[in-house]
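Quick board copy: two proteins, each given as sequence then tokens.
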Amino acid sequence: MLDFLLTSLNQTSGINFLLEFLCFILGILSVWYARKENILVYPTGLISTGITVYLLYLTNDVGNMLVNAYFSVMSIYGWYNWKYSKSDGNESLKISRTSTKQKVLGIVIGIFTFILVYIIYMLFNIKITILTFIDLLTTAIFFVAMWYMALKKVESWVLWTLGNVMIVPLFVSRDLKLLSLQYIILTFLAISSYLRWRKMSKI
């Protein structure tokens, strides 16, 4: 682990390494808070995604940069929704499963996002390769996952797990070692969180 961090430090400018490390810590904290259904998921996530947008801008990673910009906006929405929305009358928002309508909307949002980011790639003359195709796909998956998270839906963790597994090779290829390690950790947290939320949704 120490060798990994030292290698990353040697290959990255000091300020960018510190930003990546801060993003690394806050990103994991954010998912941990989400797992515990703690509203601190959003302020920690908001700072983390803001830093990630900057880091991805430096690597010209348009797709994931857009995802994290969207995360920042959705963090504000989710923060409000978790704090003020009600599930049943006077009860606070509860963990639950997606309805058929929400599943359909999720698919529509995913397809729309894929097409939109594809068009943006064309406008920026970004060549579509296997890696950029995976980038497009994970962008769509994460868009839907973040919306489901704001609604406290169990299925959000299924999408987080799938997207995290797919995105690790992208960060490795762009030499974002700490972000790669972060998403490996986030994958295990997402699986654990899914099991926890699934159990809570049945209570």
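And the next:
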Amino acid sequence: MAEDKLTEEKKKKRREEREVATKLRNLGTVAQAEVVNDVITRQVSKHLSGFSNFLRDQSVIGIGIGLVLGTQLKAVVDSITSGLVLPLTQLILPNQKSLVSQVWSVHVGHDASIAIAWGNIAYSLFEFVVVAFIIYAIFKFFQLDKLAKKK
């Protein structure tokens, strides 16, 4: 049943193509150019409107704006943590080393040792928490949850 419908659609499409080709042959060159130009214009318009619908339906613009703002937010958080948090941790941590340079060494056997950079891990987690908190605060402050579409 589905194959019959598919072959009928193909036959219909071929018949339409032959009709258009016959009509084009009977037209003059200027008229042929106008018909071809009209078909191309309609196809381009159809694809452009499809692309704009895709952008609108998939919220691609919003995602792009979010990426740009997120990148800038990350830069701000990096500068705050490197300019304020790391110097403060140097006061608290032993040997007045920064948090990023804190390492825990584990000796395995006679000649082998493993260095676990726990300070770098803690620093990354701290940055993540700060970014998440700032995004949450902005979301709640501007009441962006009320702007979401009701589905």
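Board note added afterward: The beta strands are 104-108, 112-116.
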